[in-house]
């Protein structure tokens, strides 16, 4: 039988709308990232399709233009053969003008080498205005050597078993078209990269809005039960039949909840950092936490930091990071196992390393790569926000790093926190410099 609550005792209840609003915010966060991700992939597919289509079309155009230029060179060869074999024909000038116009129209560089291997006719070879005969010969020889590597020569039958050859290069237009697909692909990649940056910025902005909204809503909903809990603490203390230590412990949790409420309400504003002892903060918080999780979870702290080792921290936020990682570890171990917290500062580094290792179920490499993504959670009703916020707190607010150092399925996971280090002596010296 359940006893009725006395009228003079404080009561509270969480309005169903609070749960509904929280669930809507969670869904909004997940849907936002799904939509942004799908849109990003859609843009990537469209850019890839356009790039491939453009490359195929341009290559086809280049092949057709190359075939046309080869036909013009062969026509030039036929004209030369006609002129050489019929030097007295009255149509000589007409034929010569026609074949010259054909090559000039397409600007095709061409050199005719006679049966004695002498370059006797050349078209569209660039010479400077004041070039001497010897300089022109060197230029023609250089172009000829290049042409021999580009295309097979076009033979010109000049009678009596004698054969001349026409060597040629691609026109400037064709050369441009050959390199155009690569330039076009580079432009496409640049557009894709800029689009990625734009959508990443939009996603981050949307993420910030959802985070702030979620945090403000959570802080607001926690306000009512916190007030009632404080009243319950006072009620327990006023009853001499109730052990006062119970009220003391409840008060500690209420103070903790108030601090959490303050954290959420301050989301979106820049936190204040102070020089804090990393060892003291971590040790104090782990001592507090281990009384509030399963008794079958054992915590071990391996403090290798030098005395006076400090860092610029926001105590409340930094404890939040440790709390998120440790609670995820407890969940991963199903309430049974060990958590090892190692604090160290290598001599060659100016950073403090904090490793949090559990003996839980571990993660696959794929999950380890997504563990910090908003909305991603391996738990059925997980929000997928804890580690995301922890990473943001460490990297954006403290200038450090948070990542999965190692994880093995069935053996456990190690998270590593890196934060800039500073010893107490340096802090004192800086304060003295500022005062002076």
From TrEMBL:
Class of enzymatic activity (EC top level): transferase
Q: Which GO terms describe its molecular function?
A: kinase activity
**Which E.C. number(s) belong to this protein?**
2.7.13.3
Its signal peptide is none
Transmembrane feature ranges = 39-57, 179-199
Record-linked InterPro entries: HATPase_C_sf, HATPase_dom, His_kinase_dom, Sig_transdc_His_kin-like_C
**What reaction does this enzyme carry out catalytically?**
ATP + protein L-histidine = ADP + protein N-phospho-L-histidine
Q: List, alphabetically, the Pfam families matched.
A: HATPase_c
Keywords associated with the record? ATP-binding, Kinase, Membrane, Nucleotide-binding, Transferase, Transmembrane, Transmembrane helix, Two-component regulatory system
Task: Give start and end of each Histidine kinase domain.
Answer: 217-423
This one is known as histidine kinase
């Amino acid at each position: 039988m359940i006893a009725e609550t006395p009228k003079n005792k404080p009561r509270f209840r969480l309005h169903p709308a609070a749960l509904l609003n929280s669930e809507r915010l969670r869904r909004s966060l997940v849907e936002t990232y799904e939509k942004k991700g799908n849109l990003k992939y859609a843009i990537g597919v469209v850019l890839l399709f356009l790039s491939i289509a453009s490359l195929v079309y341009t290559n086809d155009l280049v092949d057709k233009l190359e075939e046309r230029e080869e036909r013009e060179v062969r026509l030039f060869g036929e004209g030369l053969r006609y002129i050489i074999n019929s030097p007295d024909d009255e149509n000589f000038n007409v034929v010569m003008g026609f074949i010259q116009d054909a090559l000039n129209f397409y600007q095709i560089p061409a050199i005719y080498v006679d049966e004695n291997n002498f370059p006797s006719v050349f078209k569209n070879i660039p010479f400077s205005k004041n070039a001497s005969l010897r300089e022109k010969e060197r230029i023609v020889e250089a172009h000829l050597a290049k042409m021999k590597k580009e295309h097979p020569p076009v033979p010109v039958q000049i009678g009596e078993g004698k054969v001349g050859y026409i060597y040629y290069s691609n026109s400037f237009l064709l050369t441009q078209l050959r390199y155009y697909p690569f330039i076009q692909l580079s432009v496409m990649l640049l557009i894709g990269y800029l689009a990625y940056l734009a959508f990443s910025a939009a996603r981050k902005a949307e993420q910030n809005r959802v985070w702030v909204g979620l945090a403000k809503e959570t802080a607001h909903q926690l306000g009512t039960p916190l007030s009632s809990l404080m009243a319950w603490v006072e009620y327990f203390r006023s009853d001499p039949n109730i052990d006062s230590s119970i009220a003391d412990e409840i008060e500690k949790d209420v103070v903790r909840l108030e601090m959490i409420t303050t954290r959420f309400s301050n989301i979106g504003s820049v936190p204040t950092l102070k020089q804090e002892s990393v060892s003291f903060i971590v040790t104090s918080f782990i001592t507090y936490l281990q009384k509030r999780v399963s008794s079958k979870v054992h915590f071990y702290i391996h403090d290798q930091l030098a005395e006076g080792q400090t860092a610029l921290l926001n105590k409340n936020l930094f404890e939040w990071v440790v709390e998120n990682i440790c609670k995820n570890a407890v969940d991963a171990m199903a309430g049974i196992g060990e958590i090892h917290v190692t604090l160290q500062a290598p001599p060659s580094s100016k950073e403090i390393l904090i490793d949090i290792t559990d003996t839980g179920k571990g993660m696959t490499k794929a999950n380890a790569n997504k563990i910090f993504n908003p909305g991603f959670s391996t738990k059925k009703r997980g929000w997928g926000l804890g580690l995301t916020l922890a990473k943001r707190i460490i990297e954006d607010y403290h200038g450090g790093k948070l990542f999965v150092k190692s994880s093995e399925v069935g053996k456990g996971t190690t998270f590593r926190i890196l934060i800039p280090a500073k010893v107490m002596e340096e802090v004192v010296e800086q304060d003295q410099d500022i005062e002076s």
